Amino acid sequence: MSDPRHMARFWDERAREHAEYFVDNRLDYRRGDYGPDDPEDFWAKGRRDFDVLLETVGAPAIGERDVVLDIGCGVGRLTRVAAERAAHVHALDVSAEMIDRARANLADRDDVTFHVGDGATLRPLEDDSIDVVVSLVVFQHIPDPEITYGYVREILRVLRPGGWAAFQVSDDPVIHAMDHPGPSLARRILARLRGGLPGGQDDPAWRGSAIERTRLEREIAQAGGRVERLEGAGTQYCLVLVRADAA
């Protein structure tokens, strides 16, 4: 199994390098900060991404009494949307640097608790303490699928009976291969020297890994849940709605 400490160091470095880009690589890395977008647009895109995730899998509306967990919260973009709809949000990320930025970005909210995760579990969250779990463009970067399966089991541990989770995984092993087409080595070195190419693109913590769909469904069932909907099978953007079994 991959070392979660390496993931933490990797994402700390990426946060210091350009946190917003590594949250949303649709930004122009070379422009710095938010690229060609202003901060308002950056956050508005996060709101749209959040709604697309929920709408694509047919998730229920988040209720005003719900407690939500945002796994891989980054700078807090989805966390803010969830906090506007729920009673409380737990925002968890393996990177302390990302959590620092999220805490600063959401300093106006008193209904969010931030956690630096251990890279393998959802501790310190307690069993049956969460109504809704969300995660987007996070699990695809985990270098070892065994860690992702572990997180899925943890999701079912923290969900209350009848609670639900909407998350994204990669179901396309080709996209994670080291020989997957990309910029040539010479081009990458030149661009990096000029400050025009993001760091860490060949690191396992960026390349990530794919899950195996039948294994994912089995882990969910064994942990006390069921897949209610799955969209994007066979792709990097496989979206899953999971429901915890009722008590």
Automatic annotation (TrEMBL):
Domain Methyltransferase type: 69-167
GO BP terms in the entry: methylation
EC number: 2.1.-.-
Top EC category: transferase
Keywords: Methyltransferase, Transferase
Residues in the signal sequence: none
Gene Ontology terms for molecular function: methyltransferase activity
Lipid biosynthesis keyword on record: no
Name recorded for this polypeptide: Class I SAM-dependent methyltransferase
Organism: Patulibacter brassicae
